[in-house]
Amino acid sequence: MASAILSLTSASIATSRPLIENLKVNSKLGSSSQTTFLGKDYIKTKVIGSWHLTSMTVAVEVSRFNDITMAPPDPILGVSEAFKADDHEMKLNLGVGAYRTEDLQPYVLNVVKKAENLMLEREITKRNWVSAAFAAALIERYFPGSKVLISSPTWGNHKNIFNDAGVPWSEYRYYDPKTVGLDFDGMIADIKAAPEGTFVLLHGCAHNPTGIDPTPEQWERIADVIQEKSHIPFFDVAYQGFASGSLDKDASSVRLFAARGMELLIAQSYSKNLGLYAERIGAINVVCSTSEVAKGKEQYHGSSVPEELCAEKEFVAKHGSTCLVKPVSLQVKSQLKRIARPMYSNPPIHGARIVANVVGNSDLFNEWKEEMELMAGRIMSVRKKLYDSLSAKDNSGKDWSFILKQIGMFSFTGLNKAQTENMTSKWHVYMTKDGRISLAGLSSAKCEYLADAIIDSFHNVS
Ligand code: LMR
């Protein structure tokens, strides 16, 4: 085991408070030859006059970090680590929801390359600026005692986010294993039963991990119940564009709620739809009700109207340049900034600039829409091919059509833990233990192989 040699006179010791505390205790004991440190014989203390001179070499054989146990592998990212360690030629990583090309390579969108070139041309300096953990921190701080209702199942990281923020959560029914579809009645009943003012986490589109979304009519009903109960909708929009291939269509659930004038939290990610995974670029949007604006907490007159407000044309049109009110949205924004500051001080700007260049330039924006259709189209085509292969190979009469009804990057296969383990140990197909496969990690060429693996695991493992 590694051991560290520490010397009392070394400046480096000052960085270790527990060690100093221990040494003080030893000094105060004042014994002429004290030899105890963390249960081992490491320190020799001599008393000379009123001074305790400690000449010592401390070899820390038992680390102070010893009690920190091994964290379990992440249910999603851990799958990729296991995949990397496998050298089988047919191996397939269907664990993480990250877009891959037909050659199963990561895809850098053309619009991203163009946006980066534009940034280089304009020599934009790297400056720094903000996503779901924020919303959790905001809830914890300003809605103490409030609960978040999350779907069962949901993205593996949602529970961690709320646990770490100290925000209590419980689940609403979502997936019905009998139909491999949406348990709509269960979902509505659980949202209704939650105490008023509960935050209801909804997946804006392409539900992760099930790939099952409510219909437009069902979204209306969900909005009705949330409104009736004065709940606060909290959208997680991580796959915009991947459900239908259209960024606009995939925004329809959020827009439906916004059009009703409801206050919303929207956590949005560009990791998947712009392939900016490692840039960790997203946005937290808090839509505040305009009727809540006139709190009169601060007064702005003429030139003292903050620049941010002047830029908001709607605000100025409504209140004039001499305004006596401060919008709640600015208060919220100021608090979000405050939450961000101790978390990471200055967030990286590079990804944010790429997004701003793509959405802010009509040519690039239109090209993004085309690339989005292309990526979503490739996933739809392997989904169809997988269904065809399963239907052609499986003679048991099992209905695999749920695969076609699911949308987005994922398919929830209904395989149980033992069956998913068989997929990996026997077939080298890596997937999450809940039975989810990411179709973005599948190529047409490997559909038949995957179908064989699924049929074997489904019928031969219980
Ligand atoms: C997934 O669910 O696979 C993606 O959202 C990637 C991730 O970070 O979990």
TrEMBL record:
CDD domains, from UniProt?
AAT_like
SUPFAM superfamilies associated with the record: PLP-dependent transferases
**Sorted alphabetically, which InterPro entries does this protein's record hold?**
Aminotransferase_I/II_large (IPR004839), Asp_trans (IPR000796), NHTrfase_class1_PyrdxlP-BS (IPR004838), PyrdxlP-dep_Trfase (IPR015424), PyrdxlP-dep_Trfase_major (IPR015421), PyrdxlP-dep_Trfase_small (IPR015422)
Give me the reactions it catalyses.
L-aspartate + 2-oxoglutarate = oxaloacetate + L-glutamate
Keyword terms = Aminotransferase, Pyridoxal phosphate, Transferase
Q: What is its cofactor?
A: pyridoxal 5'-phosphate
Describe the location of the Aminotransferase class I/classII large domain by residue ranges.
132-454
Subunit relationships: Homodimer.
Additional note from the record: In eukaryotes there are cytoplasmic, mitochondrial and chloroplastic isozymes.
Name of protein: Aspartate aminotransferase
